[in-house]
Amino acid sequence: MIVFVHGFLSKGEKAWSTRTSNWFTIIQNDPELNHCDFFQAEWYTTSLSGSYDLEDAAKSLLTELATPQLPHRSVWEYPNIIMVGHSMGGIVIRKVLI
User: 35-56: per-residue pLDDT in tens?
Assistant: First the structure.
C-alpha cells in the first residue's frame, strides 16, 4: 500500500496534479507498481482552523487510515505501507506514527 498525504491548504487530488497531468494516476498505471494498492488520504486543513492543531490533524488522518477503503479493509491492514507526504502532510504522517 502506498499512501499519499496532501499538505497544508490542499486536498488529495489537488496536491498531486497539474493542469495537464496527475502524478497519482501516472504511478497507478506504472507496470512496475501493479502489485501495489494506492490511497490518497485526506485530513482537514484550512486557514480559518482556529485552534485546530497538529494533534487534531493527526487524529483526522488516523481516522481516515483506519476507515475501510480499498477491498473493504483499512490501510493499517496491509502488511507493508509506504507513506508519501507533501509538505505539512509529511509532518502529520510523522505525528501519526510516533
Answer: 999 888 888 777 776 778 889 8
What is the 3-class SS of 40-93, one letter each residue?
Answer: EECCCCCCCCCCCCHHHHHHHHHHHHHCCCECCECHHHCCCCEEEECCHHHHHH
Long-range contacts of 21-28 (CB under 8 A, 24+ apart): 27/2
According to the model, what pLDDT value does residue 8 have? Answer: 84
CA distance 63 to 51: 19
Distance, CA of 80 to CA of 18 (rounded, Å): 29
pLDDT (mean) for 64-85: 89
